[in-house]
Structure formats: structure tokens, C-alpha cells
Amino acid sequence: MQTAHFLEASGPNAAALSTGLLVARLVFGLLMSAHGAQKLFGWFGGYGLNATAPFFEQLGFRPGRAFAALASLAELVAGLLIALGLFGPVGPALMLAVMIVAAVTAHWGKGLFATTGGIEVPLLYSAVAVALALTGPGLFSLDTVLGLETLWSPVFATVALAAGVIGAIGNLLARRPVPSGSGAGLRTT
Predict the structure, then answer these.
(1) Which of 97, 110, 138, 187 could cross-link 167 (Cys pair, CB 3.0–4.6 Å)?
(2) Per-residue pLDDT tens digits for 61-74
(3) Residue 80: inside a domain, yes or no?
(4) Helix residue ranges, H only, 42-119
(5) Where does residue 156 rank: exposed (0-12), middle (13-18), buried (19+ CB within 10 A)?
(6) pLDDT in tens, 127-136
(7) pTM for this structure?
(8) What is the mean pLDDT of residues 12-35?
(9) How many angstroms separate the CA atoms of 104 and 60, rounded?
(10) Residue 16 within any structural domain of the chain
């Protein structure tokens, strides 16, 4: 069932449901894009690619610059696709993939909450990604304006999310962690 038809079937609540989806898409999508732009361009107080690459090396992603560029670009594109409501669950699946990798490599073992560097933030982004992929972008989206609602279906959403999880696993398997005690690539700040 297409998102628009589902929402139309909801009667007078369709606009309210779509408005709620629009708010969630804009907040999480634009924040995810800004997060990617911090790493990629140094915008919004970020470090930029030159400073992010050594951090990726420290996490075991080598070459760090290539992995940092791909992760940053995935965050930027995922966020824009989500905010615009474009291409159905593709943006949420990209966001899920990047957040799984972030949770495992940079936040795991630090507890739950963000105050200790825990998995809270990537977990929230992941949950929203799954929710948006499963519900569709709503009526107030480019998919609806461009007649691309058929890009959202429960099957396609599930396949896209599965591809995101598989992509994350593949990325994690590509890691080559720095040997203990070598001191190579360690950040001091």
C-alpha cells in the first residue's frame, strides 16, 4: 500500500499524520546532514575531513580518509533524502547503516547515555530511521509531489533496511583495528 493511500484512508487525520512525519523528517534529516557536513566540510563547528580521517584510522578504518569521506557523505545524503522525503526508505536505510557502525565502533562499551559517550544518540537515529522507513515519508514529501510513492512499500522498506544492516556489517568486517600497545593513530584530544 502506498503511503499517500494509507494516509488518505486515515480520513481527517491524514494531514496531522503527514505533518508529524514532516517534523520528524526535517529534524532528524537535517541534523543527520549537518552531522555529515561537520565531518566532510568542517561546517557547523566540525573538524572536517582532514581531522576526521585520523579518527577513522584509530577506529580501524583504513584508509581513514576514504572511510571518513564515505561515512560523511552517507550521513549527508541520508539526511537530505529523509528531510526531503525522497526515494522512500533509501535515506533511512543509509542512516541506519552509518549509525550501526558508529554505535559499534565509537560508542559500544561506554554505556547507554550520551553523557558517557554511550550508544544513546546512534540508537535514537537508528530507531527513527527504522520508523521512517516502515511508515513512509507521508503526504508532504517529494515522493508524493513527484508521484514516487510506489518507492515505499512494506517489502521495499524491509529490503532497504536489510541492505542497510548488511552494509553496516560489511563495513565493520572491513575494519582492521590498530594493534594494542602500538600507539598508532591514537587521538590525544
Answers:
(1) 97
(2) 999 999 999 999 99
(3) yes
(4) 48-58, 64-84, 90-102
(5) middle
(6) 999 999 999 9
(7) 0.88
(8) 94
(9) 12
(10) no
Residues 6+ apart with CB under 8 A from 109: none
- 181 pLDDT band, cuts 50/70/90, is low
Torsion 57-61-62-64 (CA) sign: negative
Q: CB-based contacts of 150: which residues, under 8 Å, 6+ apart?
A: 2
User: What is the spatial distance between Cα 117 and Cα 125, in angstroms, rounded to a whole number?
Assistant: 15
Contact 102, 122 (CB under 8 A): yes
Residue 15 lies inside a defined structural domain of this protein? no
Q: What residues have CB less than 8 Å from 140, skipping those under 6 apart?
A: 18, 19, 21, 22, 85
61: which residues sit within 8 A by CB, 6+ positions away?
67, 68, 105, 171, 174, 175
Asked, for residue 78, whether it belongs to a domain, the answer is yes
Give the count of domains, the chain: 1
Query: Which pLDDT does position 126 carry in this prediction?
Result: 98
- H or E stretch at 30: helix 14-41
Q: Which residue range forms the structural domain that includes residue 98?
A: 3-8+26-173
Taking a C-beta distance cutoff of 8 angstroms, is the pair 113, 120 a contact?
yes
Q: How far apart are CA 8 and CA 14, in angstroms?
A: 6
